[in-house]
Amino acid sequence: MKVLAVDDDAFILELLTMIAARVGFSDISTALSAEAALDMLRDRNSMFDCLLLDINMPGMDGIELCGLVRALPGYEKTPIVMLTAMAEKQFIDRAFKAGATDYANKPFDIVELQARLRILEELVTARKIAASVSVQADERQSDVVDQHAFNISDEIEIEGVKDLIAYKALGNYLTQLSRAGITGSQILAIRIDQIETIYARASTEEFLYALTETADAIGAVLRIHRYMMAYAGTGTFVVVSSKATLEPSAELEAEIQNCLDERATEYDNGDALDIEVSIGNPIRPSTNITERVRKTFDRAIARAEIRALKKQKEPRPPNIYMAGR
């Protein structure tokens, strides 16, 4: 795994290189500034598999650099770990919104750094395999109309939606929050009810369109709150919100549904693509770090699924926006 480490402190870079080499990662390049790192990253003859970026640097900081890296061809999904001694929620929020994959605190713990690098190596390997499989699938399906190269459960990337980050990154974000940050956060899941039907009928472009419209509607309603959102696959979005009070989700569900109804989404042939969503009541994440992500996300998703099942017994009023077209 080819790694680029960026920090304005030469001693930190030397320490990082030594620690990484001790745990089996010797192919590490370094840069003393964000500007120098960008020059290296723009060299298409030397692509990096993983980036370690210090946040607090003079001139361009690591968070700004992270955002610029995400705009570079070939680095849209490259794992990026932010390195910092700052644990304030505002920095964590900024880093993940800029596209960070993970967040590691200084001073470095050798065991922790080794574990993070191993996880990143597995992620890099998995993505290379997935890319290879995707290419092979495209070649096999080149003559097949409207067949997806992904499964309905895949955590596919949805582009162009503000504050939408990778599902794994959302889990890392939740892990980084302090006890105070956790007690002031809530988790909820939003599920597209008829996602299986849409997946079976829609072209890939139409399916992505449905997901994008849903994500946009969620963002439009939640914009007044500080939140982070990720797509978890199977038409489900998971949201980490800083809203102080835990309230029943019925009103929020109605607001998002109304926003979607107003959009009057359609398939390419003009048929109604009437998106309906279900939202489970929000929950507080566990204060136990090892259980925080898995149990909290699973519980939130389960609540959305239960809500969807209950709604099957309730006839839904027709979409007046579609009916009037």
Write the layout of secondary structure elements.
Layout: E1 3-6, H1 10-22, E2 28-31, H2 34-41, E3 50-54, H3 62-70, E4 80-84, H4 89-98, E5 102-105, H5 110-140, E6 164-165, H6 167-176, H7 179-183, E7 186-192, H8 195-201, H9 204-222, E8 227-233, E9 236-241, H10 250-263, E10 277-279, H11 289-311, H12 320-323
Parallel strand pairs: 1-2, 1-3, 3-4, 4-5, 6-8
Antiparallel strand pairs: 7-9, 7-10, 8-9
Helix pairs in contact: 2-3, 3-4, 6-11, 9-10
Structure notes:
This protein is an alpha/beta fold. The protein has 12 helices and 10 strands. The strands form 2 sheets. A 5-stranded parallel sheet has the order 2-1-3-4-5, sandwiched between helices. A 5-stranded mixed sheet has the order 6-8-9-7-10, with helices on both faces. Helix 2 packs parallel to helix 3. The protein is globular.
Which structural class fits the helix and strand makeup?
alpha/beta
Question: Nearest-angstrom radius of gyration?
Answer: 21 Å
Mean pLDDT over the full residue set:
85
**3D shape:** globular
Distance between the termini: 54 Å
Strands in their spatial order, largest beta sheet:
2-1-3-4-5
Query: Which percent band covers the strand fraction?
Result: 5-15%
Biggest sheet statistics: 5 strands, parallel
Nutshell version of this structure?
With 325 residues, this protein is an alpha/beta fold. The chain contains twelve helices and ten strands.
Key phrases:
alpha/beta; 5-stranded parallel sheet; 47% helix; globular
